[in-house]
Amino acid sequence: MAIQKVLVVDDSKTELMFLTDLLQKKGMQVRTAENADEAFRRLAEEKPDLILMDVVMPGQNGFQLTRAISRDPQYSDVPIIMCTSKNQETDRVWGMRQGARGYITKPVDPAELQAKIDSLN
After folding, report:
1. Do the beta carbons of residue 29 and residue 8 sit within 8 Å?
2. Of 2, 32, 43, 21, whose CA–CA distance to 108 is shortest?
3. Exposure winner among 29, 39, 61, 86, fewest CB in 10 A?
4. CA–CA separation, 48 vs 44, rounded Å?
5. Cα dihedral 31, 34, 62, 103 sign
6. Residue 27 carries which DSSP code?
7. Which one, of 55, 56, 46, lies nearest residue 81 by Cα?
8. From the CA atom positions of the chain, what is the Rg in Å?
9. pLDDT per residue of the chain (121 residues) written in tens, 0 to 9
10. What is the largest CA-CA distance in the chain?
11. Helical packing angle, 89-97 and 62-70, nearest 10°
């Protein structure tokens, strides 16, 4: 199943614009959310094929949100790739333990992101 619908969760408007533009050029439909509450509203409106998740956000952080989504039976099949400035190995391991299927550090390398997405198909 090819990934068509992507939800990007990030509190940075710059990152949202960058990732949206990148994914739309690949023919994907992109929806965005700037925090956990908005992310859950977007999930309820339309289930995505993939979620790109920032870690450092106000309120619930990306690790907590990834855990909540990946443990919800309704969304547990939606792969999550963390896209974050947190570049320590311990952060990557923790993100994967919360349910992420991939981990990329910012600035996001378009080729690396595409490779991660391709590996999910």
Report:
1. no
2. 21
3. 29
4. 10
5. positive
6. T
7. 55
8. 13
9. 689 999 999 999 999 999 999 999 999 999 999 999 999 999 999 999 999 999 999 899 999 999 999 999 999 999 999 999 999 999 999 999 999 999 999 999 999 999 999 999 7
10. 34
11. 30
